[in-house]
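Researcher: We're teaching a course module on how sequence relates to structure. For the next exercise, students receive a sequence and then see the predicted structure as tokens, so they can try to spot secondary structure elements on their own. Here is the exercise chain.
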Amino acid sequence: MNDRQLKELILAAKGKLPFDIYFYNARIVDVYRERIIDSGSVGIKNGIIAAVCPDFEPRATEFIDCRGMYLAPSFIDAHMHIESSKLTSFAYCEGAVPHGTGCVFFDPMQMSNTLGLKGIKAICEMLGEMPVESFLQLSSQYLSTLKTQDDITNVIKECRAKTVGEISGAVVGNEEIIKLLGAAKRAGVKVNGHCPSMGFRDVQQAACAGLCDDHECESISDLEQRLACGMAVLVREGTIEPNCRTLCEGIVKNHIPTDDIMFCTDDKSAEDIKENGCIDNALRIAVKCGISPVSAIKMATLNAARHYGVDDIIGSVAPSRKANFLLMDSLENMTVKKVYHQGRLVAENGEFLCRHEFDITCYPELKNTVILPRGLDSHSFEIKAGFERGYVTANAIEMPEGGIVTRLVKGRLEVSNGIVCGDTKADILPIFVVERFGRSGEIGSGFIKGLGIKRGAVAASFAQESNNVVVSGVDPADMLCAVKAVEANGGGAAMAIDGKVAGLYSLPVAGILSGENITDEIKAQKAFREALALTGGNIQRMTVVLTVSLCQTIPEVGLTEKGLFDVNQQRYIPTFTGGEEFEE
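Model: And here is the predicted structure for the students to work with:
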């Protein structure tokens, strides 16, 4: 806001200049006093709120009758990854804004791990063209690749990051992390936490390191421990990890104050966004659990704005804040009817009014990012035992039903002609992570239990955190076929049976995003899920593994291009723990 606009705002607040827009006959949600202002009104000047319920006869260029609807601040998503939706920023906003999302604190972890600073700037540029406030949570994984503390500090400042995103509470004593924490402090930004399955001692360690919040609470005990340590809690309602109901029921039952509690989506699929919404869905659940509608809205707006130090510009319907608000006809079902950004109508009755088509030629740096190692053949997807015949005891990643947390289990597998065989009856199959950026050319291997694949193979290029190509299946030739199809397609996923591609899902934008609008992208995802059924496997578990569960930060065990990784011990572990060789 320049000096002229500031002067006009002040004069409009005093009634000496007309408002640009005057909203009247509204029920205003006052998040400061946690009450409803009946027959309320709001005057806007230059996209900023100049007056709420002014005590003078208003003059305005445009008058808008709110017809008794509730006028509330736009919702704030306190932590999320756009890439999880497989949508560009344009298509993401097409889905999220009509549901009332007016601000995102976004961590472009996958984009930064794929393309570094170029990817970060591309996603920020796209969001900058959209009618949504956006604040960068700069990926700690990307920052950890920088050489010096000065390099880290300079990148944080160059990107104008609001926070450093998701530092694992389990590794805060690591020298590299200490360097990163110091850089964040020098840059004057907060550090988001990532503390899944952690006991109270570890939570206190995380708090001592300066982690300001956590979005990994799965129980009310988790939530209370974080609050007791002075950390804020981001109640997550994601597609794979929907924790809102459990936590909100506990908040109500235990009479827990909500001042340091807010909402986030973390990871949301395009279909989930379109059908169920984003933060509005969390609010509906919170209200059903017994949290008052106004308190829930405060959690989704003012609490998040205060936590990140932006409550002077967003998070409430009050003078000097941006005119970012929405209209709802009910506080029980939280159905958003209209969304305004800086006083401009940007969504109405579920329709986004500011659609922007994505053109990849405007972002050449996002093309052709899948570069597989040379000389790949079917033997690249065999795991050798070191002897010809017998059995091995293998470490395996087990995928429980629901959620993303894995378990480390043992499996007894046959060795034939020197190759360790998968066992479809025991549901244990080989799995590989292939480095896909033309750098090291490494291929990590292990075994996974729970995918249920009976035939063929499936591969994908969008697995958090590395976005390397993950492939698993029954037949090495099918695994090769699927991996090659992903490369030829510029990224995405492929399913192969009998040496032929039987399903293809295209993500040509950095190998992790679609260039389609949200409706067409949902159709593409559904079509690929239908193709996955041909493997006879568990589609939900396959989706989770291809997307998130092989991370080095999600307990208990992950898989990288270097091999099996014990998350709890923070070290690589062998594929085999024993063997029994048969004599010829």
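Model: If you want an answer key for the exercise: The mean pLDDT is 94. The longest strand covers residues 19-30.
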